[in-house]
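Example (one chain per record):
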Amino acid sequence: MRYSKLAPAISFCLFLLCCSTNSVDRQEKSKQEIAQAEKEFEKMAAEKGIAEAFYFFADSNAIIKRQHDTLIKGRENIRNYYAADYYKTASVSWSPDFIEVAESGDLGYTFGKYLWQSKDSTGKANESRGVFHTVWKRQIDGTWKYVWD
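Predicted structure:
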């Protein structure tokens, strides 16, 4: 008799354990997907140009913060920002040092180090190093796009 009274409680505990495991699995899978998106983003920037990469990986409502705390809002405006001559001859590389994902598996963020390289009008090479922070959102089709950079 006692065991039949415990059965619902045990079932409920097992259900919670399964849900918790699924959440952890979902988070780990999402971390791997975001890591892959970061690699593809960097690769596209090198192969197709910075403007195209930042456009392609941007959510429709993406915002980037740049010099003097300027906010550039929307994919088209981000593409236009990076269409400037300076960025046509520049290159950027980066790699996330840290990736975190919400328990729901649909929102995450990364941060790490980046390196900008460019040449001025005299051909002198310039480098700029820093730390980036990107917020990623899973899209309806399952891909990841950044909403903040």
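Caption: The radius of gyration is 21 Å.
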